[in-house]
Design brief:
Strands 1, 7, 8, 9, 10, 11, 12, 13, 14, 15 and 16 form an eleven-stranded mixed beta sheet that branches. The protein has a three-stranded antiparallel beta sheet with strand order 5-26-19, with no helix packed on it. The protein has 648 residues and is of the alpha+beta class. It is globular, with a radius of gyration of 29 Å. The chain folds into three domains: 320 residues, Sandwich (Jelly Rolls); 58 residues, JmjC domain-containing ribosomal oxygenase (ROX), dimer domain (Arc Repressor Mutant, subunit A), CATH 1.10.10; 135 residues, Outer Surface Protein A, domain 3 (Alpha-Beta Complex), CATH 3.90.930. Helix 4 packs across helix 8 and helix 10 crosses helix 13. Strand 8 and strand 9 form a beta hairpin. 30% of the residues lie in helices and 18% in strands. Its main location: nucleus. It comes from Thrips palmi. It is an enzyme of class 1 (oxidoreductase). This is Bifunctional lysine-specific demethylase and histidyl-hydroxylase.
């Protein structure tokens, strides 16, 4: 045996850490033994899961949807919906064709008819790019996607390609001849985002989801025939690759957790989370939580960035990898609308109704609960790969894996701090400030004896003096709304969204119509060759419907354009980004915002002179805040041909 004095510092470190991990492993094994006994009363074994799944399958034969009317607390439990999605096949060319099944019964408002099952296993996966997501029908969730969508049914910016010779724009210079791209002026980024959402929740339409389920009740969509439906978003091998190639930090990007004997523990180390150490924890029964997987996985990032256009709020995600026969978190509720996408394996979920009115639609997450505090579950479901489970904020939940199968799921979160209360928090103080400045009534002194009739001691008093004081306060509150700067407060709330939003993911066609892919380049001879020219005839539009916000603040002669185009891939990883423009430029920016998705020739911007029009357009172009309808003509110097197909 080697003495400690003969070991290198690194070897001592390795041995000490190995001993520590062995201690953790021993402790976790003891906890797991106790957990197996505890698990029986919660029916978490494989047999119970199998029976539950079999019961759900039998139920789906009788009815495609479990349904009842939404209720308020104090009445019967809120309803739960289970929907089985129809089968779809992804073709080799990327187009999507739905297998048409005839149903004798009609869809009704409270049910979604189930298509008959196919014996063949088929998938709808996002293997390479989320541009393969189908454009779902708006009215009939079982409609043929290939016929209802434009072109190939992909929710991308439409483009028309054709060979076209570019004209000479500068004397003595040549312009490259390449495939011409033309962005559609009728398809909004919001419309494209709605296609992504329709794919996410298929076969439930967007309209039905927001009218029947949103902020009301859970819904589970089962995809018996599409177990790889979400497979392109993330994978266990992808997580391993992420750990090895990136500086993934404990507490910032990853958490190591366990839950046993009704107690949750976080077992994070410090510094970088190396793959070998993470997998050692996993092997010993710990769950792995990725706090911002969209930063490192482009497909997930594009999905989140697109969904922001639907929700008008930051859309984030966490990923959870749980070994077999384990649970990583205690029962709790969250302050977000949760969409649980099962990627690999399976997991048993239990969802509980909010315990009281104050916990419905909460603005903060709860602490961990004990089993005794949460009562009986509203929903028990065995979530398998390809399934999705939605539940509103305030619904308590817990989940565990069963023996013999791991679980990888992604929770997409939306609508955090995006309520009426959040708007009022900005509006009411501003309204009071305006009222105090402009209305003498708010500045008048209180009656001499006011404190003799107000306060806890006098709360039950019905004296005429107290009644008069209360009437006065009510009148001032009613009057306060007249001074409420609703639009200014809304701009401030929108600024919060702009700061937190993911930057837009541009398609290759969009990049070629932006400063990101259509500009000067450096060549081997040390010279910049090629330049793009904005002319008064150049049509342009803003990059996304919600990429910027025009806000008038302190300075009287200028306004600010807050934007998300340069945001970090980590939430609030950078300070909020903005540019300042002269106040007389504001009408032109307003025109671009209101006219979106239509393209506006620079010459049509409502500014007094051509120089101002070009100046504003150039400022927006250089910040990637606008796209041109077609790639700008690239001027080539010295006869050098520029390859403008580089999408990097």
């Amino acid at each position: 045996m080697v003495a400690v004095s003969e070991m290198s510092a690194y070897e001592v470190y390795q041995r000490n850490n190995a001993d520590k991990r062995q201690e953790n492993a021993t402790r976790l094994k003891e906890k797991r033994k106790r957990k197996i006994v505890k698990r029986k009363q919660f029916k978490l074994n494989a047999l119970a899961a199998s029976e539950l799944l079999e019961a759900a399958s039998e139920h789906s034969k009788r009815s495609s949807v479990q349904d009842s009317e939404p209720t308020t607390l104090g009445e019967k439990e809120p309803m739960v919906t289970i929907v089985e999605a129809p089968n779809k096949t992804k073709l080799n060319n990327g187009s999507v064709q739905e297998r048409k099944k005839k149903n004798k019964s009609e869809d009704t408002l409270n049910s979604v008819q189930v298509s008959k099952k196919s014996n063949k296993k088929t998938t709808l996966a996002i293997k390479d790019s989320l541009t393969d997501v189908p454009s779902a029908a708006k009215k009939d969730s079982r409609a043929d996607l290939s016929s209802s969508a434009k072109g190939n049914g992909h929710p991308t910016v439409s483009s028309k390609a054709k060979k076209q010779s570019s004209s000479t724009v500068q004397s003595g210079s040549k312009v490259s001849e390449s495939e011409s791209i033309s962005l559609s002026d009728s398809e909004s980024s919001v419309h494209i985002a709605e296609n992504f959402f329709s794919w996410l929740m298929d076969p439930i339409s967007k309209e039905d989801f927001f009218s029947l389920y949103w902020e009301k009740r859970p819904v589970h969509i089962c995809r018996e025939e599409n177990r790889d439906y979400y497979g392109g978003l993330l994978s266990t091998t992808g997580i391993d690759d992420m750990l090895r190639k990136n500086n993934i930090l404990y507490g910032k990007n990853i958490d190591i957790t366990s839950y046993s004997n009704q107690k949750r523990e976080t077992l994070n180390s410090t510094g970088r989370a190396h793959a070998a150490v993470v997998w050692d924890y996993y092997r010993n029964g710990c769950s792995i939580r990725l706090l911002n997987p969209q930063t490192y996985h482009p497909q997930l990032r594009e999905l989140n960035a697109r969904l922001q256009e639907v929700f008008g709020s930051f859309v984030g995600s966490n990923a959870y990898l749980t070994p077999p026969n384990s649970q990583g978190f205690a029962p709790h509720y969250d302050d977000i609308e949760a969409f649980v996408l099962q990627i690999e394996g399976s997991k048993m979920w239990r969802v509980y109704a909010p315990r009281n009115a104050s916990e419905r639609l909460p603005r903060t997450s709860s602490p961990s609960f004990t089993q005794e505090e949460i009562g009986e579950p509203l929903l028990e479901v065995y979530l398998k790969a390809g399934d999705i489970l939605y539940f509103p904020r305030g619904f308590i939940h817990q989940a565990n894996t069963v023996p013999g199968e791991h679980s990888l799921h992604v929770t997409i979160s939306a609508y955090q701090r995006n309520s009426w209360a959040d708007l009022l928090e900005k509006l009411v103080p501003a309204a009071l400030s305006c009222a105090i400045n402009e209305d003498e009534d708010f500045r008048k002194g209180l009656p001499l004896d006011a404190m003799n009739h107000l306060g806890a001691v006098h709360s039950d008093s019905e004296s005429p003096e107290r009644e008069a004081l209360m009437k006065k306060l009510k009148r001032l509150f009613n009057k306060l709304f007249d001074y409420a700067p609703v639009d200014a407060a809304s701009d401030q709330l929108a600024k919060d969204y702009i700061h937190g939003a993911l930057p837009p993911c541009l398609s290759s066609a969009e990049k070629k119509c932006s400063v990101l892919g259509n500009s000067d380049r450096m060549w081997e001879n040390g010279q910049c060759q090629g330049a793009v020219i904005l002319s008064l005839e150049t049509p342009l539009r803003i990059t996304r419907a919600n990429v910027l916000r025009l806000v008038s603040e302190e300075e009287p002669d200028c306004v600010k354009l807050y934007h998300s185009i340069e945001n970090s891939l980590e939430y609030h990883g950078e300070e909020i980004q903005w540019i300042e423009i002269p106040v007389h430029f504001a009408p032109a920016v307003e025109h671009l915002i209101i006219s979106y998705p239509k393209f506006t020739p620079i010459n049509d911007l409502p500014l007094e002179n051509d120089a101002d029009k070009i100046q504003l357009a150039t400022e927006l172009w250089e910040r990637a805040l606008v796209l041109t309808q077609k790639p700008l003509s690239v001027v080539i110097d010295n006869g050098v041909d520029v390859d403008d197909d580089d999408d990097k």
